Amino acid sequence: MTIVQLEYLLAVVNFGSFSLAAERCFVTQPSLSMQIKNLEEELGVMLLDRSKKPVMPTQAGEVVVSRAREVIKTYNSVYEDVAVLKGTVSGVLRLGVIPTIAPYLLPAMVEDFAGRCPDVHLEIKEMITPQIVRAMEHDEIDAAILAGGTCPDGISEENMFDDKFYAYVSPQHRMFDRANVRLEDLDLKEMLLLSEGHCFRDQILDLCPSKGAGHGSYYFESGSLETIMRIVDRTEFMTIIPEMAVPFVPKEHRDQVKPLARGAVSRKIAVAVRRTYVKDTLIKGLKESMLAVSVH
């Protein structure tokens, strides 16, 4: 039994396919299949049910997969422990970031992180929260930056800072001339939202007293907050944006940004990892970079 065989087994279970697993492991499918077959022969049991789509672990396979995850995490922790003794931080950090954080925090954070941890290879994927949870459960990413309070049991969150909410109002909107916007005046019929699956959408819905109201003459959802803001510019609608997006609003549109009258309305920006995660020094560097570039 080898570490490579266990990694290949986990890859097949994570992706449900020998071909996808081979692609992600940068090996040929026959080579990956042979390694898993050798492992099965050594243990004397079938580990994978190849008749199912996606490929599923057998009962024996579930036991081995559970142990394999523990073994590989321990194996990887050896490199981190040695790096700490040597006074260096190195390795690979696979990071998921939600779309309402990525364009605003990442540019400066990545630059800062590269300066703090020059020997760390950072791999970043922009993903909505349900995708992040699934990827973390399948060991496809190591950590995530997201809105706090959105992860299930088994994933640990640490809140880093608060990110206030602001109204972004069209010049044609009835509340454009106001200095601020009251929560009780928010109306879904006048609101453009992110598409389903975005936790920021759910947070906005929780703010609106008219949750059950229908939409007005125009209805639009998008996976991009920037797209929604540009449509607000040219229509009579409004949306809600996070504080971290405010510095990126063009100067000619800054008068469309309105604070919410209840200043405590905000989200927590958190770093999430699985509770069995071991790359503590890499996560420490990530947190330091987040705080260093945050305007909060």
Question: Can you describe this structure?
Answer:
This protein is α/β, with parallel strands linked by helices. The mean pLDDT is 87. 31% of the residues are buried. Among the domains are: 1-88, Winged helix-like DNA-binding domain superfamily/Winged helix DNA-binding domain (Arc Repressor Mutant, subunit A), CATH 1.10.10.10; 163-265, Periplasmic binding protein-like II (D-Maltodextrin-Binding Protein, domain 2, 3-Layer(aba) Sandwich). Strands 3, 4, 5, 6, 9, 10 and 11 form a seven-stranded mixed beta sheet that branches. It is elongated. The protein is built from nine helices and eleven strands. Helix 7 links the parallel strand 7 (193-194) and strand 8 (221-222).
Summarize this structure briefly.
The chain is α/β, with parallel strands linked by helices and 296 residues long. It is built from 9 helices and 11 strands.
Features:
single chain, 296 residues, alpha/beta, Arc Repressor Mutant, subunit A, D-Maltodextrin-Binding Protein, domain 2, 7-stranded mixed sheet, two-stranded antiparallel sheet, 9 helices, 11 strands, 41% helix, elongated
